[in-house]
Amino acid sequence: MPDAEMRQPVAMTAENVRDYALHGRDREIRTIAGMAAEFDPRTLLVVGPSGAGKTSTVMHALRSLGPGVPVLRVARIWSRRPHARFLGAAERADLSGLLTDGDDAGRSAATGFFQSVTATFGGKVPHVVFVDDAGVLTEEKLAWLQRLADEAFALDCRLVVAAEDLPAGALHEDLDILRLGPLAGPALSQFLVDALGLAIAADVVERITWWSAGNPRLAHELAQELSVAQLRGGAIWHGPGVVGPAARRAYRHVLEQVDEPAGELLASFVLRGVPGSSLGEEPWDGVAGLGEDPSLRELARQGLTAARDGLWFVRHPLVALLCAERSGLDQPAARAAAGASEAMLRGLHMQELSTVLRSGPLSAACPKVRALAFGVSALIGQTWGIPRATDASGCADWADHVWWRGAGGPAGPGAQARSAGARLLAAALAVEADGVVRDPVRLRADLDEVAVTPGQHWLGLHLQTRMRLMLGDVSAARALVAAHADDAVLGAAEQVARSVSAALVGAVEGQFQDVRRQLQAVRLLRPGCDAWLVLRGLAALSDAAIDGRVPDVGVPDAPGNWSSRAAAEFAADVGGAHLLLGRAREAVSLLAVSTEQCTWPYQCPVMVRADLVDAAVSAGEIQALPTVPGDDAVRVCGTTSPDLRAAASRGSALLADGDDALAAFDEAVRRSTPPASIRQHVRTLVAYGRFRAARGDSGIAVAAFDRARTLAQLAGLAGWTRGIDAAQTASGGAVASNRWDGLRRDERTMVRLALKGATNSKIAESVFVSERTVVNRLRQVYHRLGIRDRRDLIRLAEECPPQWAAAEV
């Protein structure tokens, strides 16, 4: 979709304005409904700025009382043509001449209001009167409403008033005040998604929330002015250039109270602000260095500013824009971003960045931008930020920026750490360009050197996490992610890098629920990220393990080219998903492609090759086997982590022969237990179960499958249990033909009846034994066949039917 493409505006009509009350106003709705249902009639003032959702919140609460409670809504009460209507009725009464403001006759008319309304509506008496849109209440207007409340009290009627602001000073004790505060980010996000029908990037929601001060109508007005690319995070949006009509109406009375000096000071909050929000870009969180300007305290008294920890904060940014507009200040130019390419990269504004890349590469950019480009392209798996092999020698000037913030300052890393960082960058470039690691031992030492330095950012930490996993050092990768989980992030790219790093570790360890949570966080931040190969591969693994979903192997189109490393990792993840579901034949081809395309994927070459051996042996495609992953391969990785040892032992055991295989499998099972991850342990148990079933040791095979199934169930991975069931059934079928013949005549009769759908009690009647005897004998049959229950029995008979099943009487 083009950057300039705009959606059709969504108007706030009577049909969708009620959505205001559906998100974030539950407490207020209960308060209003409770007041309207109480016996002690009091006046409730619902106070909030224009656009806060006062009308919709009150109407939603009053409608919940049901049609049996008559509710009269009075609108435009201070205008020349006020009117009233009962909820649910079409008839509307003109109250002109009855409700006026400012003279004695009008004030005294409040006394006869209910009699007049009753006469107008044919004697119908309201239980609740809702005075809507009363605006800013002056003392005179409030006194008029109080007289109306007195008459309501006499008639046991409740009065609810929606107002923008109240006069200063003490209020009457019969008045209850309910202030509608700003909507929090999640509620406002859901409202915008419902109103626009479009997923919105999390940081864009945060920025809209800041600019609108949590006001839903103002947030909707801001969102309507954005393109689809801006809403989804594909293009930069710093903030509004002009103030819309809804905001002008909401802040008109506020602006009247701000004099010129205070207005210029307020405008400085958006003109001089410094980035510092949780996502590292605008909106601005605070301004320092304003001194003790006397206007600050007046602005604070009006609720427009607040001080905290030496910084002054603006509470209603659009008021500041109105002040800048009134003073003739060029605020859009003052807020223009310096360094558009850096902002695009930090914000992962990929749609806008694609346009920049089409005009030429970023090779001539400043060192920081070149480092950012490399980190982002490695993160999403595209080649546009990866230097060509002939350009790799020119990376020294930006190597430090790959790992550290402010690398050139006096507090930057030392010479030894910088040398290690330069070697790490060279190793990362080699993996991206050729898929190889030339010196794993040196790489691990450099990772240890850089890991302890301060001032790192998450794009660099993501590369370190990936390289730790490449070496098979899962525990070190997990520790690295945990150690920096609470570090500050600057921009969406770092936040995505943090989530993807945690997802990579979770995928290798088999913690697929965690993988899904991290992927969801990335999708909330950048809704258009599902095309990235790294996320598609991780999603395939988690969907297969949790839901049993068969993965799609299609590679999506994308701007730029996918790197061979990214394509290989995608193939390994999708192949692992097939293997997890028991689809060995599909897994073989994908895992073989992965090992050919990239020698060092993040899943670790030893682990990918072990899965390939597992799939090839299970599918009977021995010709697809790679070099045997054994102790030599482990030493090449330069580490002896439990997961690496477990994967290598599984691969070696699968290829062993005779009595050596039995000893090798016993060793593989031992090595796969904790501290090795659940993924390695379950995969080893499934392979062990297949091996034991093929030897005819059905009891041991069933025990191995049951242990694997229990582990998967405890982890909440129902999809994985389906793959284990399929592996167990297939293993049972391989030896079932011999086991079928070993059943006694009475057992065959029971099996034949069970296969025809007879219940245990029916079988007992047919063979003249107790039902308990049938249960025990069928359980013995299941054990000798290497299956678990009647469902497996039926499946086994379909795949490998006994010859006597049809002829047995």
UniProtKB/TrEMBL annotation:
<dbReference type="InterPro" id="IPR000792">
    <property type="entry name" value="Tscrpt_reg_LuxR_C"/>
</dbReference>
<dbReference type="Pfam" id="PF13191">
    <property type="entry name" value="AAA_16"/>
</dbReference>
<feature type="domain" description="HTH luxR-type">
    <location>
        <begin position="736"/>
        <end position="801"/>
    </location>
</feature>
<dbReference type="InterPro" id="IPR016032">
    <property type="entry name" value="Sig_transdc_resp-reg_C-effctor"/>
</dbReference>
<dbReference type="InterPro" id="IPR003593">
    <property type="entry name" value="AAA+_ATPase"/>
</dbReference>
<dbReference type="InterPro" id="IPR027417">
    <property type="entry name" value="P-loop_NTPase"/>
</dbReference>
<dbReference type="InterPro" id="IPR041664">
    <property type="entry name" value="AAA_16"/>
</dbReference>
<dbReference type="Pfam" id="PF00196">
    <property type="entry name" value="GerE"/>
</dbReference>
<protein>
    <recommendedName>
        <fullName>HTH luxR-type domain-containing protein</fullName>
    </recommendedName>
</protein>
<dbReference type="InterPro" id="IPR036388">
    <property type="entry name" value="WH-like_DNA-bd_sf"/>
</dbReference>
